[in-house]
């Protein structure tokens, strides 16, 4: 026995020496593997395994991942994986590691999982390991996937990755897909993503993590997509999403990985380096922007090389047509381009032009040899561009016409070719004449339509823009401005076309298609015109255009004509010096009385005109003259009922638009597939006003809290949850609004209480509905309160912070009776919001309805999260006094009272003079700054009592009086209750002292029971089921 121990000890020393030398360098691993194999061969299997396992024990207690330790682990895994001749050692070593993987020590679990994963990754496919052992290893690693240590979880996932591809182990893949969305650690998510095999189920999970918050996970997702998913296996939508996200990622490493996927895998391997073939896999007609970004990235990376025989001229083939007795002349024959080819040449030509301009600018900004190099590069790019483009403008025109005549299948290619016109030279009079005739032909081209089963004409396209497409209208206007670049020439040509098209409309002989065509050309003119100055003295004057075309079009019987005419009215109003009366009246009429689609367009027009000219100018056009002082002091919006308005609309513009946010019928009438609604347009308009409030001084700042309150309520409303455009717009707005200015935080502080009172059921509104519905509404209100708290605590941007510090240094607060007035930004800080919340809480009486109890509890839970600055000593003292009354109001909530006591202790700790009293004048000064009307008692204690008691100044009442008051309060809470109050008469015997004492005792006992019931309620009454039930009973 002693001999065996001595032999084992000697063998352990030899093994330890080999392991130490293997940790020094990877170069020695091959030689040391031979040495360790020699030791294994020279010893019995049991002796060697015992010595080997005991030698590894110190490694299982070493937590640091040093380079030497990692090399040792890899050496051990390599040795174990190469033990083919003695499978018994491998199986015995696996069982040893499985036991270590279940140890209580986290370092032992980490090393065991690390070695298991390394061995499994190195084992050959034909390794002979029993199925029972694999089952043990897999089950152990499945348990470690749920380990509390992230590194252990990651190594367990790596160990299971090799089994995830096996169909017999589908439960491992299910485990990965379940753990991935729940995993919080980025390294573990990365390992799971790298371990997922290619399949339809895993492609969705990997695609979702291209938007992961961690850069390493996003990079791993693109790596897996590049190496495990061929281009042909992905759908067109998935391909475009991958490129759209990856090429626009904020991380350079992720963008580089996506570019590697695009260039090395998709372009080179799948498309043989042909960019046009790659564009065919992306459906550029549907995903044009993705195709453009792909071409721009490839051109910038130098992955696209033009061949000498490649140019647009190869699609224009000249053929000779010989006629008897005459010499032959050339007639161009056009080869039609596919959509991918047209996009390819547009991006290539645009890239060449951009490079030439950049190098030309660099040459002009430098001198000497460097300028000569830049000039040479610019000249080379210009020469290459000239070689690629058509040689003559007439050839270009014929090329575009051929694609136009080919039908709707080549509409995309036609638009791409139109955009090439901006790169041609029209300085020659002959070329300009040919191009001008082509432009007018495009403008006169009638609207395309189809005939349905009932014989009705259905317009193809959006029915608003020229050609039924916004991109097509932009392409035509860009070519027209390039051809007619002289001042006023563009307006003159388009007015000539409009005058020609408007003639049948004036004569009332045009159908609705001709009306829409004429108005679309007019809209193109008004959208691109810079001023009416260039339209004066032309074929049709602006006033004539308004009276004879736009206003009659807005009153047309066909809704599609009304829609496009309303849009033109909005564009016309932006060009006017002052909005005209007829235009404003018609837009207001369309906004109020028009259908949903027309109201949307009119809403856009009114907001644009109001922000451009100012709401006062629009109101003056309607004859509404208000004094500037009255307008600046406007605090509320006038109530407007849009459903009952007659034609005598004596309503201001802001009142009218604000009333539009309250019309729920517009929300219900809009299809959920549409991207726009009246609420979305109004919300976006008011968000712009608040975000850029400095640019709109004509809008009173006193109205900003009302705007913000309404936007917050809309953002958290269930009625607008399907309006994705509104949600997206407001999410971006709320992200930046609080950090732009300290005045914005002041606006948020003022909006807090109106939002909470409006959203909380039973405060400003009737608390009806089932308990579940009431609970959900309260949860939304709590979310809104926390959301506003986050906005208040969001830091200001750097420039605004510097400006705020300068203002504080330049203007010091005045001192009143030894007391410093609040700082200039007091109303913008958390102190002002805290006092507003406290004033709201103490405004409720001791006896509260269930809705009021939960409301007060929710406010107090927000109150304790606010912080006070050391410089605001007056606010600290005032808050200390108010906290006592706040605690009294929320005495039924034990947890809330505890938090309030902690807050009082924090305030006392930062109070420089805790024993100094706050005078009534000082308190009124602070409350006046916050525009609060609160009866403040200077005799209130600044210490929260151990057991707060409800404040009451009323004398003791009889039992009958208590019952009568409870019945009265229930009737006030329920507006649907019409049960008259039964008033009891006082019995003559109640004057006796014994009867008074008995009734007083009964009343006190009843109050004690009520207090006990309140104390037994949950810590939070925000979503209390009992409160909801009581609220429903009171409503009934």
TrEMBL record:
SUPFAM superfamilies: ARM repeat (SSF48371). It is found in: Chromosome. It holds the Pfam family Cnd3. One of its GO terms (cellular component) is condensed chromosome. Residues 947-965 have a biased composition (Polar residues). Residues 1026-1036 have a biased composition (Acidic residues). Residues 943-978, 1003-1036 are annotated as: Disordered. Keywords: Cell cycle, Cell division, Chromosome, DNA condensation, Mitosis. One of its GO terms (biological process) is mitotic chromosome condensation. InterPro entries: ARM-like, ARM-type_fold, CND3, Cnd3_C. Residues 517-868 form the Nuclear condensin complex subunit 3 C-terminal domain. It comes from the Eukaryota. Belongs to the CND3 (condensin subunit 3) family. This is Nuclear condensin complex subunit 3 C-terminal domain-containing protein. It comes from Vitis vinifera.
């Amino acid at each position: 026995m002693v001999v065996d121990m001595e032999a084992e000890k000697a063998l352990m020393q030899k093994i330890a020496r080999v392991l130490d030398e293997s940790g020094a360098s990877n170069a020695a691993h091959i030689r040391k593997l031979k040495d360790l194999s020699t030791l294994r061969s020279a010893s019995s299997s049991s002796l060697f395994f015992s010595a080997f396992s005991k030698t590894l024990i110190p490694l299982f207690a070493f937590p640091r991942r040093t380079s030497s330790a990692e090399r040792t682990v890899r050496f051990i895994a390599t040795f174990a994986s190469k033990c083919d001749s003695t499978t018994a050692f491998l199986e015995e070593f696996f069982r040893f590691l499985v036991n270590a993987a279940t140890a209580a020590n986290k370092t032992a679990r980490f090393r065991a999982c690390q070695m298991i994963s390394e061995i499994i990754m190195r084992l050959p496919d034909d390794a002979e390991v029993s199925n029972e052992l694999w089952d043990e290893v897999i089950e152990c690693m499945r348990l470690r996937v749920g380990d509390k240590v992230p590194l252990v979880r990651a190594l367990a996932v790596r160990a299971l990755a090799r089994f995830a591809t096996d169909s017999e182990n589908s439960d491992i893949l299910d485990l990965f897909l379940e753990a991935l969305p729940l995993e919080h650690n980025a390294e573990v998510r990365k390992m799971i993503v790298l371990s997922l095999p290619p399949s339809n189920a895993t492609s969705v999970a990997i695609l979702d993590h291209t938007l992961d918050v961690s850069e390493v996970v996003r990079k791993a997702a693109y790596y897996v997509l590049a190496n495990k998913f061929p281009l042909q296996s992905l759908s067109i939508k998935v391909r475009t999403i991958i490129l759209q996200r990856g090429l626009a990622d904020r991380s350079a490493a992720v963008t580089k990985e996506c570019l590697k996927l695009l260039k090395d895998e998709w372009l080179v391997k799948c498309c043989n380096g042909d960019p046009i073939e790659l564009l065919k896999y992306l459906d550029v007609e549907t995903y044009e922007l993705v195709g453009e970004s792909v071409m721009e990235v490839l051109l910038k990376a130098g992955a696209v090389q033009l061949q000498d025989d490649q140019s647009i001229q190869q699609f224009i083939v000249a053929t000779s047509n010989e006629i008897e007795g005459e010499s032959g002349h050339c007639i161009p024959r056009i080869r039609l381009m596919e959509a991918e080819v047209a996009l390819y040449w547009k991006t290539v030509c645009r890239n060449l032009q951009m490079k030439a301009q950049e190098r030309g600018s660099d040459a002009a900004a430098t001198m000497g040899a460097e300028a000569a190099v830049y000039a040479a590069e610019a000249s080379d790019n210009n020469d290459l561009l000239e070689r690629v483009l058509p040689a003559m403008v007439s050839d270009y025109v014929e090329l575009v016409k051929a694609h136009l005549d080919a039908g709707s299948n080549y509409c995309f290619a036609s638009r791409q070719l139109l955009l090439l016109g901006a790169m041609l030279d029209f300085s020659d009079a002959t070329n300009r004449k040919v191009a001008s005739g082509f432009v007018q032909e495009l403008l006169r081209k009638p609207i395309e339509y189809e005939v349905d089963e009932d014989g009705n004409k259905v317009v193809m396209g959006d029915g608003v823009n020229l050609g039924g497409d916004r991109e097509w209208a932009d392409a035509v206007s860009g070519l027209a401005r390039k051809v007619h670049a002289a001042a006023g020439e563009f307006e003159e040509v388009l007015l000539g076309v409009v005058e020609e098209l408007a003639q049948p409309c004036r004569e009332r002989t045009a159908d609705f298609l001709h009306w829409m065509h004429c108005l679309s050309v007019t809209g193109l003119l008004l959208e691109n015109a810079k001023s009416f100055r260039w339209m004066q003295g032309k074929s049709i004057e602006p006033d004539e255009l308004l009276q004879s075309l736009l206003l009659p079009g807005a009153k047309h019987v066909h809704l599609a004509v009304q829609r496009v005419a309303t849009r033109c009215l909005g564009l016309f109003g932006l060009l006017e010096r002052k909005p005209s009366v007829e235009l404003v009246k018609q837009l207001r009429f369309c906004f109020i009385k028009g259908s949903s689609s027309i109201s949307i367009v009119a809403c856009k027009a009114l907001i644009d005109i109001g922000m451009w000219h100012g709401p006062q100018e629009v109101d003056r056009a309607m004859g509404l003259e208000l004094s500037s002082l009255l307008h600046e002091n406007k605090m509320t919006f006038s109530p407007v009922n849009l459903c009952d308005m007659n034609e005598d609309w004596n309503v201001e513009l802001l009142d009218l638009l604000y009333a539009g946010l309250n019309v729920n019928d517009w929300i219900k009438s809009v299809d959920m597939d549409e991207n726009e609604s009246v609420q979305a347009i109004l919300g976006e308009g008011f968000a712009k006003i608040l975000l850029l409030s400095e640019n709109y001084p004509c809008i009173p700042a006193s109205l900003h809290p009302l705007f913000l309150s309404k936007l917050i309520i809309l953002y958290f409303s269930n009625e607008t949850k399907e309006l994705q455009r509104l949600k997206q717009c407001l999410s971006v707005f709320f992200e930046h609004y609080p950090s732009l200015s300290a005045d914005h935080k002041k606006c948020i502080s003022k909006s807090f209480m109106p939002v909470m009172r409006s959203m909380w059921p039973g405060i400003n509104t009737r608390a009806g509905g089932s308990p579940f519905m009431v609970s959900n509404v309260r949860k939304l209100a709590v979310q809104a309160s926390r959301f506003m708290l986050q906005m208040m605590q969001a830091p200001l941007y750097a420039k605004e912070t510097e400006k705020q510090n300068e203002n504080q240094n330049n203007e010091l607060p005045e001192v009143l009776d030894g007391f410093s007035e609040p700082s200039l930004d007091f109303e913008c800080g958390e102190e002002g919001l805290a006092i507003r919340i406290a004033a709201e809480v103490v405004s409720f009486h001791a006896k509260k309805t269930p809705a009021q109890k939960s409301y007060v509890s929710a406010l107090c839970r927000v109150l304790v999260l606010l912080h006070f600055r050391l410089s605001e000593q007056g606010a600290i003292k005032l808050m200390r006094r108010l906290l006592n009354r706040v605690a009294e109001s929320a005495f039924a909530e034990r947890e809330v009272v505890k938090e309030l006591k902690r807050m009082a202790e924090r305030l006392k700790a930062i109070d420089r003079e805790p024993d100094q009293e706050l005078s009534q004048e000082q308190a009124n000064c602070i409350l006046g700054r916050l525009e609060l009307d609160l009866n403040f008692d200077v005799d209130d204690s600044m210490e929260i009592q151990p057991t707060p008691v409800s404040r009451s100044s009323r004398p003791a009442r009889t039992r009958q009086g208590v019952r009568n008051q409870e019945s009265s309060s229930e009737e006030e809470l329920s507006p649907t209750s019409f049960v008259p109050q039964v008033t009891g008469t006082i019995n003559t015997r109640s004057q006796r002292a014994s009867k008074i004492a008995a009734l007083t005792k009964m009343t006190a006992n009843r109050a004690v029971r009520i207090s006990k019931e309140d104390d037994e309620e949950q810590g939070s009454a925000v979503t209390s089921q009992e409160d909801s039930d009581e609220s429903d009973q009171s409503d009934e």
